[in-house]
Amino acid sequence: MPLKMLFAFIQPKFIAAMVLSGLVTVVVLYLSILDDTHLNTHLTQNTRTRPVKTMFWYKPNITTEMYLLSAYYDDRPTIDPMTRPAIRIIGMAHKDEVDKEKLSCLVTYEGRETPVLQAITPTDIGIGGWRHGKFFREYIFVCGSLRVKDKNATFVSVVDQTYLTQTNWESHEQVRVPVRYPRREETMDFGCCVSLAYWKFDPYRLVEWVELHRLWGVKEINIYGSMVEDTTERVFLYYHQQGILTYTRVPRPITEDGEIMFHIMATPVINDCMYKNMYRYKKIVVTDLDEMIVPRGNLMTYHDMLAAIENETESSHPYRMYNFRNVYYFSELPQNTSQPEYALTLRQNHHLRELTAHGTATKSISDPMACNNLHNHYCLKIPKMLEKTPHSIQVHEKFGLNQHYKKCHFDKYRKAYNLPSCKEALKNYTYDPTMLKFKKKMLASLKKPLKDLQLIKHVS
Ligand SMILES: *[C@@H]1O[C@H](CO)[C@@H](O)[C@H](O)[C@H]1NC(C)=O
Ligand SMILES: *[C@@H]1O[C@H](CO)[C@@H](O)[C@H](O)[C@H]1NC(C)=O
Ligand SMILES: *[C@@H]1O[C@H](CO)[C@@H](O)[C@H](O)[C@H]1NC(C)=O
Ligand SMILES: *[C@@H]1O[C@H](CO)[C@@H](O)[C@H](O)[C@H]1NC(C)=O
Ligand SMILES: *[C@@H]1O[C@H](CO)[C@@H](O)[C@H](O)[C@H]1NC(C)=O
């Protein structure tokens, strides 16, 4: 499908997709398997071995209220030559002011005294939200193509018209964001970028989620956490020490109650993950912690799944991306209580018979060489050069589905999205043994982490 068609198809459902994705309902309750589920205190001390990074937001001293997470140097051969090389600045800002003010960037170069001023193009990466009476939107500010090409950019500042029209603006201190150069070594087939984790998650489900992704061939998982509860964070820290997971703490830029701020932080962290790893991950798996893209039929790994999809797809695009349909495994549906309590995906083997509509709550495996703006559901913006041929494959359900484990949320969004009530929806479900093919391997790999984390005493 050409990009324009894909967009026409997806845009009206954009908000529905956001809401239905489970972004809103990432908080899950604990299973009470054992009373003594206290975690080892030595795990916290171990964090010394591989330090956990905390990313703070930069707040430019300008009229436009803006918070910047990071800036990346982008010289991918696949991006539009008109914007190459570019610096992509990831953050959020007051939308009205971004629309009204003309933004510029000031780039500082190694071995050059004065910074270079050039125009910025703001590009969206999310649907935004209200904070203290202002509508904030998630953006990647594109600064490029860079006018100075023979020197390394070291810092970038964002300034607006109000700032530039002051007398002697050059002498005012700006907030400088360091320009990062993405690593190129240690490449791998699959890396995983997860949108923001906050508050509390079921630790058993986290362990299962990580181990399954590892079985499927994901070599690195990135989790950004904000205000994460202790037990949940210790699971992240445990895997951070193992190396399979990179955990990064991100405090909120604005401290206010409620979840809106976390939602606005979600796509900036996903894009930080993509740009940081764009030369290392051949494909990026994007899912939330309450869902997973599962290879179906006799397919056991992501590698085999993509090979099978390719075998049946006539696409010549060099950087293909894959969109998977969503299916709900609501927790109200019957469970197999003979399966181990710590393996939810084995117990929960009924899902709604009907798959979620095409384009809604879709999850994807994206290609960082072909994506400029990554979203929680799929790549939002593709470089112009790569738009000409179809790049996104709508994956048939026989190859893979996004399995989504949560309580039914239809009642809350019934009117807005024309959904059936939970009572109605939960009547029509089906048995699905897909996860049982992973049972042996999965239970074997769950043992050590569950024991190490003292989540369980004996694993049979
Ligand atoms: C912020 O900018 C204003 C005007 O440009 C300047 O007067 C003020 O000193 C700056 N504040 C800081 C903390 O840099
Ligand atoms: C830019 O930085 C890289 C790595 O730090 C270095 O190898 C390269 O020579 C630098 N280029 C210039 C033009 O300074
Ligand atoms: C490739 O597709 C053909 C038919 O389209 C099928 O017969 C064959 O088994 C497939 N091979 C693989 C490896 O999936
Ligand atoms: C439930 O789990 C048990 C234990 O693994 C298994 O023997 C049984 O076949 C399962 N039942 C169904 C309907 O899957
Ligand atoms: C249940 O879902 C299936 C698959 O979408 C559909 O064909 C069927 O009509 C539904 N049954 C009821 C009773 O809604």
Automatic annotation (TrEMBL):
It is an enzyme of class 2 (transferase). The keyword tRNA processing does not apply. Its EC number is 2.4.1.-. Keywords: Glycosyltransferase, Membrane, Transferase, Transmembrane, Transmembrane helix. One of its GO terms (molecular function) is glycosyltransferase activity. It comes from the Eukaryota. It is found in: Membrane. GO terms for cellular component: cytoplasm; membrane. The chain crosses the membrane at residues 12-33. PANTHER family: GLYCOSYLTRANSFERASE FAMILY 92 PROTEIN (PTHR21461:SF69). Belongs to the glycosyltransferase 92 family. This is Glycosyltransferase family 92 protein. It comes from Lingula anatina. The lineage of its organism: Eukaryota, Metazoa, Spiralia, Lophotrochozoa, Brachiopoda. The gene is LOC106175163.
